Each structure stands twice: as structure tokens, then as C-alpha cells.
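TICKET: design request
STATUS: open
ATTACHED STRUCTURE:
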């Protein structure tokens, strides 16, 4: 008999169908869903983040969606604290917590013993790097990171100014790359009866899905969503507004690009993001990868995962 809490994690690249799979699983496994998406935390940002709608939820409780305003800070440490509280609460009610998303840092905060306070913040360094980013753009400080910490450069998106600055700050304070320091305390957490499922598919098919999803976002009103955010006073340099789909539409609205150019940039950015997500998750050998192409119907895929999950929990 084990006292470990149950935890099912569903990961995979953008547009692969994690939302539909997770809702199907929650219905079969008496589950509740905890989002692990660093863009879906923001209120008012629905279309560009492919946020699940109330209708799509089909009555399944969803957590850590719409929890902060676009100009509020929300750290990985905040996510870890909130998600762990939810995991315990859901287990205490004899239901299964299902964490679903593609934000690698959020997932890792739950399954690795990561120390977020190892290097204290240095405001002088942060302010200097922030000024450089404001003057020359995120690309400039991202390039600085490439020169001192190639692994973190590859892992951190150019839009994620906060984490680029943190990685550079750690390097300046300690003289060692953040990626090397992370390895010192990146130990798997053994507190959960854990099952990790990774969804994958043929790369070209995935890219087709991504392209189609972007076109549907435009049809659904992404341009109006971005316009509304700007009218509400949310500045284009906010971390939230630098998300894929938002920064490109802002450039269109400011006359820097045509709509067609912006749409192509969103598609390309989304495809590159999917590639980075897969690279990130492939490093964790605890993930059971499933090729969704092998299932002709969604129900078949869901039942395969249900059987796998129940077998693991019985062994636990």
C-alpha cells in the first residue's frame, strides 16, 4: 500500500489535441484538470492561447486558467505552489488530478526537485538587462545568453524576457551557466504515484494542424482580441503580449507587416515552438510516448491511456 498521491500528466506539443484527450480521460477516470500552460493563465487572452471554452469543458473542473491579468507577474514558483495544493485537494476528494499542458518549466516544477531560490535576485543586474532589452529588443539579450549558456538559450523562448534575464543574472552572479547549476539539483520527485503520457504524431501532420489552427484563430477574432487588449491599456512589451499570436498581430496593427505576413509569422513561430516543446520533453525518460496517428478514433486513444493509467496505479 502506498501513501503517495496519484498524478497523471498529459504533455505534448501545441495543437496535438491535449485538451480533447484530457477531457475524455477526466470523464473516464473521475478526474479534474490542472492546466500547465503559461499563456492560459491570463484573463482576456482566449483565442490566441487556444483556451478551453466552458462548453468544451463538458462539466469537468479546470484549474489555473484565467487566474491573473495580462500585466501581472506569475512565476514558476507560484505555479508549483498552486498546482501542488490542487493536486493534494483533488486526491483528498478521491478524484484524479490530471495536469495538462505544454509549458515545460511548469511540468518540471512538479516532477523535479527544483530549487527556485538558490541564487538570490540582483536588482542592479536585472535593471541593466531590462534597459538593454527595452532599448535593443529581446533578441539582443537572447543573443547575449547564447554566448554564455547555449543550453538555456535553446530552451528559453526569445519572447520570455523574464527568464532570459534570470538566466543571465544567474550567470553574472555565479559565473556558471544556469543550465549547469540546474543539473546540480534536478532530482526527480518521488512524492507522487506518477504517470506521464506524451502525445506525438508525424511532424508534417502536426505542422498542418498548427497552420489550420492559426487560420481558425484569425477567423474566430484574434485581431479583435489583440485590439481590445491594447485598448484596455495592456502594453505591447508585457510578457503576456509577447506571446506567439499576439506580438505578430500587434505588428500588423501598427502597420509593420501585412496581415498575410503576420499570419505566416504566427504559423512559423508556432511550428518552432512545437519543435522546442518536443525537444524539451524528450529528455525525460519517465514519459510514455503515444503516437496519436496509430488511433483512428479519439475514443480508442483515450481508452488506451485509461488502461495504461489504471495498470500503473494498480502497481503503485
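STATUS: resolved
RESOLUTION: sequence designed for all positions
ATTACHED SEQUENCE:
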Amino acid at each position: 500500500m502506498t501513501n503517495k498521491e496519484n498524478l497523471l500528466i498529459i504533455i505534448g506539443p501545441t495543437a496535438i489535441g491535449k485538451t480533447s484527450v484530457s477531457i475524455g480521460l477526466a470523464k473516464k477516470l473521475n478526474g479534474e484538470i490542472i492546466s500547465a500552460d503559461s499563456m492560459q493563465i491570463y484573463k482576456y487572452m482566449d483565442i490566441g492561447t487556444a483556451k478551453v471554452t466552458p462548453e468544451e469543458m463538458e462539466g469537468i473542473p479546470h484549474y489555473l486558467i484565467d487566474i491573473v491579468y495580462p500585466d501581472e507577474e506569475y512565476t514558476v514558483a507560484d505555479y508549483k505552489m498552486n498546482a501542488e495544493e490542487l493536486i493534494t485537494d483533488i486526491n483528498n476528494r478521491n478524484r484524479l488530478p490530471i495536469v495538462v499542458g505544454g509549458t515545460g518549466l511548469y511540468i518540471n516544477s512538479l516532477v523535479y526537485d527544483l530549487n527556485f531560490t538558490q541564487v538570490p535576485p540582483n536588482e542592479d543586474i536585472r535593471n541593466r538587462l531590462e534597459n538593454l532589452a527595452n532599448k535593443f529588443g529581446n533578441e539582443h539579450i537572447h543573443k547575449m545568453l547564447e554566448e554564455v549558456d547555449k543550453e538555456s538559450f535553446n530552451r528559453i523562448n526569445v519572447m520570455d524576457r523574464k527568464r532570459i534575464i534570470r538566466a543571465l543574472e544567474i550567470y553574472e552572479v555565479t559565473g556558471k551557466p544556469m543550465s549547469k547549476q540546474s543539473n546540480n539539483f534536478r532530482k526527480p520527485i518521488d512524492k507522487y504515484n506518477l504517470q506521464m503520457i506524451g502525445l506525438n504524431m508525424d511532424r508534417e501532420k502536426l505542422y498542418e494542424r498548427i497552420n489550420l489552427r492559426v487560420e481558425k484563430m484569425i477567423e474566430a477574432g484574434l485581431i479583435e482580441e489583440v485590439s481590445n487588449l491594447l485598448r484596455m491599456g495592456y502594453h505591447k512589451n508585457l510578457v503576456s503580449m509577447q506571446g506567439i499570436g499576439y506580438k505578430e498581430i500587434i505588428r500588423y496593427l501598427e502597420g509593420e507587416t501585412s496581415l498575410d505576413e503576420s499570419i505566416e509569422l504566427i504559423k512559423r513561430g508556432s511550428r518552432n515552438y512545437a519543435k522546442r516543446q518536443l525537444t524539451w520533453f524528450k529528455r525525460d525518460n519517465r514519459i510514455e510516448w503515444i503516437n496519436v496517428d496509430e488511433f483512428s478514433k479519439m475514443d480508442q486513444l483515450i481508452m488506451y491511456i485509461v488502461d495504461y493509467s489504471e495498470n500503473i496505479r494498480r502497481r503503485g
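CLOSING REMARK: The chain has two domains: 5-114+186-315, 123-184. The longest helix spans residues 259-281.
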